[in-house]
Design brief:
The protein is mainly β. The protein is 4% helix and 58% strand. The strands form seven sheets. The protein has a 22-stranded antiparallel β-barrel. Strand 21 and strand 22 (385-400) form a beta hairpin. The longest helix is centred in the N-terminal third of the chain and has 7 residues, at 37-43. It is globular and about 65 Å long. The two termini are 25 Å apart.
Length: 658
């Protein structure tokens, strides 16, 4: 997944080395070869799901949220519209247990522990991948191994062979006042240095109509206070000192001044809330590969995040709040490959986080945290067997400038994963994995006024997976199937309980057990040289139960917002005229609270979309036109209770590349 150099030339007379123990392809003498994503998904020791840029187009993926609906085991919270907050959880663990990396470096939010995925559009994304458990690529920072599941966002790489400037200009327009221009410039300055710049702006009124059914009556209205006004920019560079040494860097800035729509309940649609998010980070990554069996990766990052929340409907601005987060982070990983069968990795990470607030009543103690993570990993691959073992040591040192701090925390977390090819001449694999990991409380959970507690213990999680994968290719027909069963257990789960009518506090009383199964399938049939049919689908079953107190009436209840059944299906026809894709995703009913109180059940839904696109080519120039119809049958549904999602809408995009 990491390119070792920018240049890619004809392979005649050159040598290419495939590293069978780290799952990387190394470039020797200006040659780059990469393993197909389908092969990675089949041979992986832990569940791995990859959606690349070509599949996003051919199967009608419209945004990050839509892409995540195509992955089994994923539960997305979406508050509606282009600007609605979007967080993701995997296999019942919760959004705080799901890591998100951006070009190989983890994103962080020490305040809430959750990453808002609405910040990231697909226009600059080359590939999305989700690994549940340990990644077969062991040459990673320790932080990337410290979560039960990690979603990796990989942006578009640099140009390869020529020194011509490359320009991508795109304009999207759609329903409810949506408009989004996008611009990307990239160029190889010389044989060693490449640069790129990206700019994007998104505006949407999000005033979509909806229907609300209450007490047997149906009320029609439009969403209010839902405007989205955001922009982001990036500067990137890659410098190759020689064939095996590479330095890359990124500067990123995001600014979003959005209105927050309120709940729609009892005919009320009134909200004046607003939130302005700003995020800046800069990161550097240096990599050197296989000098006498040794490889080194070093990265450093500075992250700054500010949020300003206002609610003018509350007297005296009692709920207005401003927060500032800062993070310094560095990581070093050393990889040693003494033979084709064995690889060993040691990674050490250090990060410093602090949080300050304009209001003492919220988080006025000004907490900060030092985090030290160390991981030691061994991987063995020989013939039909692949085995991976890792031990992670985590140390959290907590303090606060103006008050009591939470306790320090330390843990050892083991993991083991295996993959075995059952038949030597067939792509049929059996895989099994186990991972123990824990999550330190967020600053909100530890310090927030009338909510947090400094006595909290970390949540501890165990995940066990057993599955099979199969792939075949013959006479223009390609098939791939995966099936996994899993068991997850969370203890010392952090839950908020009422201290009195007005004060809640976080305590470690929760236990959750998740039993589940996942199925994925992909088929591709080439009708002729210019006609191909693609079929993709997945199904997930999750039984996520409260196992805290057997005498409680909530014991055995499904956890809030975790549906038992989710699935998606897409069929695409690629042809020389207008390529088409019909796709849909849906989930079963679920509960909006853990008590399963009357009136808190959220109905299931199935959302269908249609995509048509065509690419025109003139020499080095390309023009791509795409038209999407979302929610084709105008289904009225909610993902989060009382936050209605948009009905039928359209989106037109035109992209020019040179």
């Amino acid at each position: 997944m990491i390119l070792l150099c920018l240049l890619s030339m004809t392979a005649s007379g050159q040598s290419v080395r495939r590293d069978t123990v780290t799952d990387r392809t190394h470039q020797l003498r200006e040659v780059t070869v990469t393993e197909s994503r389908r092969q990675q998904e089949v041979t992986s020791t832990a569940p791995l799901h990859i959606i690349n840029r070509e599949q996003m187009l051919s199967l009608g993926v419209t945004d990050v949220a839509d892409a995540l609906h195509r992955i089994p085991g994923v539960t997305l919270r979406d508050y509606g519209g282009a600007g609605g907050l979007k967080t993701v959880s995997v296999r019942g663990f919760g959004a705080k247990h799901t890591g998100v990396s951006y070009d190989g470096v983890m994103l962080s939010d020490c305040q809430s522990g959750e990453i808002d995925l609405s910040r990231y559009s697909l226009d600059n994304v080359d590939q999305l991948s989700l690994v549940i458990g340990d990644n077969d690529d062991i040459f990673i920072p320790a932080r990337n191994a410290s979560v039960p599941a990690i979603l990796s966002i990989q942006t578009i790489g640099m140009p390869s062979a020529d020194k011509h400037p490359h320009l991508t200009a795109q304009l999207k327009m759609g329903s409810f006042g949506y408009v989004s221009p996008f611009l990307r410039y990239e160029q190889n300055v010389n044989d060693r240095l490449a640069i790129s710049a990206v700019g994007e702006y998104v505006y949407a009124e999000n005033d979509y109509p909806y229907e609300l059914k209450t007490n047997g009556t149906t009320v029609s209205d439009r969403r209010t206070n839902s405007r989205m006004n955001s922009g982001h920019g990036e500067l990137n560079f890659v410098w190759c000192a020689d064939t095996f040494n590479r330095l890359s860097g990124k500067i990123y800035y995001y600014d979003n001044d959005r209105q927050l729509p309120g709940v729609v309940h009892y005919y009320s649609n009134l909200s004046k809330e607003s939130l302005r998010d700003r995020n800046f980070f800069g990161q550097l990554m240096y990599q050197t590969y296989h000098h006498k069996g040794w490889s080194l990766k070093w990265l450093a990052k500075f992250n700054w995040n500010a949020s300003v929340y206002k609610n003018p409907l509350i007297p005296n601005n009692n709920y207005d709040a401003s927060y500032w987060q800062r993070e310094g982070y560095t990581s070093a990983a050393v990889l040693y490959t003494p033979s084709e069968q064995w690889a060993f990795d040691y990674s050490a990470d250090y990060s410093f986080n602090n949080l300050s607030s304009a209001e003492v009543r919220t988080i006025g103690v000004r907490p900060y945290r030092h985090t030290i993570l160390q991981s030691a990993t061994a991987k063995y691959r020989s013939g039909r067997l692949t085995a991976l073992a890792r031990l992670l040591y985590s140390l959290y040192l907590n303090d606060a400038k103006d008050g009591e701090s939470s306790h320090n925390m330390r843990r050892l977390s083991p993991s083991l994963s295996l993959s075995y090819q059952l038949v030597e001449d067939e792509q049929l694999f059996l895989r099994a994995s186990y991972k123990n990991i824990f999550r330190a409380p967020t600053f909100n959970e530890s310090y927030y006024f009338h909510y947090g507690s400094t006595d909290l213990l970390p949540e501890s999680t165990d995940q066990l997976n057993v599955g099979m994968t199969w792939k075949m290719q013959m006479d223009g027909l390609g098939l791939q199937l995966t099936a996994d069963g899993y068991y997850n257990h969370v203890k010392d789960m952090i839950v908020a309980v009422p201290y009195n009518m007005f004060i809640w506090t976080c305590v470690n009383v929760g236990k959750v057990r998740v039993l589940g199964a996942e199925l994925t399938g992909f088929a591709s049939y080439r009708l002729s040289d210019r006609h191909t049919l693609n079929l993709s689908g997945n199904y997930s079953y999750q039984q996520a139960e409260n196992r805290t107190n057997p005498s409680s009436p909530n014991y055995g209840h499904q956890i809030a917002y975790i549906p038992k059944h989710t699935g998606s299906l897409a069929i695409g026809w690629e042809n020389p005229w207008v390529s088409l894709s019909l796709h849909g995703s849906g989930i079963s009913s679920r509960w909006a609270d853990n008590n399963h109180a009357e009136g808190m059940k959220v109905k299931g839904y199935w959302d269908t979309g249609l995509t048509a696109y065509h690419t025109f080519c003139w020499g080095r120039q390309q023009l791509e036109a795409r038209f999407d119809v979302k929610n084709l049958f105008d289904t009225q549904y909610e993902i989060v209770q009382f936050y209605p999602m948009p009905g039928r809408s359209w989106q037109l995009s035109v992209k020019y590349q040179i």
